[in-house]
Amino acid sequence: RKEVEQDPGPFNVPEGATVAFNCTYSNSASQSFFWYRQDCRKEPKLLMSVYSSGNEDGRFTAQLNRASQYISLLIRDSKLSDSATYLCAVMDSSYKLIFGSGTRLLVRP
Amino acid sequence: NAGVTQTPKFQVLKTGQSMTLQCAQDMNHEYMSWYRQDPGMGLRLIHYSVGAGITDQGEVPNGYNVSRSTTEDFPLRLLSAAPSQTSVYFCASSYSSSGDTQYFGPGTRLTVL
Hints:
Chain A is an all-beta fold. Chain A has strands spanning 4-6, 11-14, 19-25, 32-38, 45-50, 55-57, 60-65, 70-75, 84-91, 97-99, 103-108.
């Protein structure tokens, strides 16, 4: 079983929709959590860190559930430009940053 | 700042050849890492370093060596290339190992024939 797992999608949604992704992790000692965005054939870029209390950045909301060992990303009012692959990443206690395989989002007009 | 730079951008090797993928950062970051990305597999950690002189294995270290003699540079060596090492390789760095933002280089696309 992979340490960090995501639904690969693709999620195909219309503009303006709300979409949510989940990511589960297996190491209960994990200490830092992130969502990255990757456009086709480009390097990943940080979308947002995920804090225990949850955090919001504009249309994006990230949450952490330590008890159930998952993180989530909610995108409201989807834009065409949100089409990308969303990668969750988890840092464990030995400072390894492990990525999920990514969830592909397609936003259609 | 140039950020994280990787060379070469593209490389074709024959099975059994060796080569070094270069990675450099000019942000005085302590933490550096190498990932490979294959279709449907996401990013898999090869090796990482929490500071100069310190390296450790990631998820898929076999067939790769690294060294970290300076803060700026973190080269990845393929000792004897195999077709299974055909992939896109990303180098990343962050200020520290305490959950800071990872900055990725543009990647090296490697094909092993």
